[in-house]
């Protein structure tokens, strides 16, 4: 699809050839296959702090951070120590633990909308379960989502989705029955009037509106001023539940997530990524009256063999305790601003048109000359140019998202020295794009 840099070194190439015979596309999640940028994915051997080292011994400054969870950095000493102690007590019990209460208390204390919470095993599971709860609580069937927003691979949600679906150039996925898709209504992100029209046409049937309050899965796209407030008001007026998908933004943009940052309280919230400290996890929570409708307290069924797994709870709780300190988010804002200012200046110096969207420690550089406020604008970004930039940066030891339509992340382990090295690599990469 794009111009490629020097091919991956021998071990990564050999491992990918082996993986292609064993795993669909050679990976266990599509974006990892480098289809959005071309070339062979790097197979990682280990990671520490803000860097990863591949099987060929090349070390990269990492701005993917396992797609968001690694806000403290890879192999954080406190998280590793806590996991070591937890491992000695067993890996899974299939029974309740005190850890589940402790992490629930931490989440409820932090997130404005959450009065009760249910732990699950992934962000997809969280969004699927929240939608089922919304339908069960309202007695309605229709769901509203937004073009280019990705909420996991549940059937109801793979309609005009972003993320890996966008990378593959698909509007949705084969295998989703029309009878399911017809209950999902899509609207353009950042357009309150369009959402109002959807409610005018379907309001009595809409169970919920699900939204990434800051989009990360068409690249980082920021809500216009007043937009989230308008979405909240429309849901309230028409009796629909508002679901914030904060799998990516939860505990990243603020301790209370995007809902704290923008002062908008949804009815339900989905979480993942950071709350597991790098281990598989998800959660959904909200008002007590809604959450008490989930089994065994109520009739809306949801269950999971590994939900509340003690290792994930340990890593997550250790991480969340560190994030109580407000200076964490001040540091992330400062480093995010420093890096993105440097990237913008480097692009301008080379005469390359880019737009960088950022909120706190998540950002995307789009190769376009117009503001990116929705999927239509994001999709105009020059993907071939992004692919060339990605590979130039990769060769310089900088690991960015291997897709134009994914956010990048900064963590506490990204020092000023690493940021400056990244900007210098970007200067050289942008210069290559001009040649």
What can you tell me about this protein's structure?
The structure is a single chain. This protein is α/β, with parallel strands linked by helices and 435 residues long. It has helices spanning 10-20, 77-87, 98-110, 123-138, 163-167, 178-181, 192-202, 227-238, 257-262, 288-291, 310-322, 327-350, 375-378, 383-395, 416-434; strands at 44-48, 51-54, 59-62, 116-120, 142-146, 184-187, 206-211, 241-245, 268-272, 282-286, 355-359, 362-366, 398-399, 408-409. It folds into 2 domains: 10-71 and 326-434, Aspartate Aminotransferase, domain 1, CATH 3.90.1150; 78-322, Type I PLP-dependent aspartate aminotransferase-like (Major domain) (Aspartate Aminotransferase, domain 2, 3-Layer(aba) Sandwich), CATH 3.40.640. It contains 15 helices and 14 strands. Helix 7 runs parallel beside helix 8 (227-238). The longest helix has 24 residues, at 327-350. It starts with 9 loop residues before the first helix and ends with a helix. The relative contact order is 0.17.
Keywords:
435 residues, alpha/beta, Aspartate Aminotransferase, domain 1, Aspartate Aminotransferase, domain 2, 2 domains, seven-stranded mixed sheet, four-stranded mixed sheet, 15 helices, 14 strands, globular
Spell out the blueprint of helices and strands.
Layout: H1 10-20, E1 44-48, E2 51-54, E3 59-62, H2 77-87, H3 98-110, E4 116-120, H4 123-138, E5 142-146, H5 163-167, H6 178-181, E6 184-187, H7 192-202, E7 206-211, H8 227-238, E8 241-245, H9 257-262, E9 268-272, E10 282-286, H10 288-291, H11 310-322, H12 327-350, E11 355-359, E12 362-366, H13 375-378, H14 383-395, E13 398-399, E14 408-409, H15 416-434
Parallel strand pairs: 3-13, 5-6, 5-7, 7-8, 8-9
Antiparallel strand pairs: 1-2, 2-3, 4-10, 9-10, 11-12, 12-14
Helix pairs in contact: 2-11, 3-11, 7-8, 12-15, 14-15
């Amino acid at each position: 699809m794009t111009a490629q840099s020097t091919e991956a070194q021998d071990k990564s190439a050999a491992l990918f050839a082996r993986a292609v015979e064993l795993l669909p596309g050679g990976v266990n999640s599509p974006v990892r296959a480098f289809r959005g940028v071309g070339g062979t994915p790097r197979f990682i051997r280990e990671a520490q702090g803000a860097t990863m080292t591949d099987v060929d011994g090349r070390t990269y400054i990492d701005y993917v951070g396992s797609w968001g969870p690694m806000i403290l950095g890879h192999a954080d000493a406190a998280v590793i120590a806590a996991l070591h102690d937890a491992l000695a007590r067993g890996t899974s019990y299939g029974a309740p633990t005190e850890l589940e209460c402790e992490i629930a208390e931490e989440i409820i204390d932090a997130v404005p909308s959450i009065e009760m919470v249910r732990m699950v095993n992934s962000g997809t599971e969280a969004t699927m379960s929240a939608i089922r709860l919304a339908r069960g609580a309202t007695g309605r069937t229709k769901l509203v989502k937004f073009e280019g927003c990705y909420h996991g691979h549940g059937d109801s949600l793979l309609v005009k989705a972003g993320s890996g679906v966008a990378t593959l150039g698909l509007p949705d996925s084969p295998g989703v029955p029309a009878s399911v898709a017809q209950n999902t209504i899509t609207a353009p992100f950042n357009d309150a009037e369009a959402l109002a029209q959807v409610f005018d046409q379907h309001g009595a049937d809409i169970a919920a509106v699900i939204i990434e309050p800051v989009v990360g899965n068409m690249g980082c796209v920021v809500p216009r001023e007043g937009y989230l407030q308008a979405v909240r008001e429309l849901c309230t007026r028409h009796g629909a539940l508002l679901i914030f998908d904060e799998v990516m933004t939860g505990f990243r943009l603020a301790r209370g997530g995007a809902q704290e940052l923008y002062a908008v309280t949804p009815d339900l919230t989905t979480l993942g990524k950071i709350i597991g400290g790098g281990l598989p996890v998800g959660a959904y929570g909200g008002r007590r009256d809604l959450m008490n409708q989930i089994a065994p307290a109520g009739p809306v069924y949801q269950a999971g063999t590994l939900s509340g797994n003690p290792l994930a709870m340990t890593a997550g709780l250790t991480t969340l305790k560190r994030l109580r300190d407000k200076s964490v988010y001040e540091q992330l804002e400062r480093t995010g601003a420093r890096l993105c200012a440097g990237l913008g200046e480097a692009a301008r110096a080379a005469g390359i048109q880019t737009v960088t969207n950022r909120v706190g420690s998540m950002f995307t550089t789009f190769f376009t000359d117009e503001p990116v406020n929705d999927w239509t604008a994001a999709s105009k970004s020059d993907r071939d140019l992004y692919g060339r930039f990605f590979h130039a940066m990769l060769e310089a030891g900088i690991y960015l998202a291997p897709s134009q339509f994914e956010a990048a992340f900064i963590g506490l382990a990204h020092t000023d020295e690493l940021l400056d090295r990244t900007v210098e690599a970007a200067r050289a990469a942008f210069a290559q794009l001009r040649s």
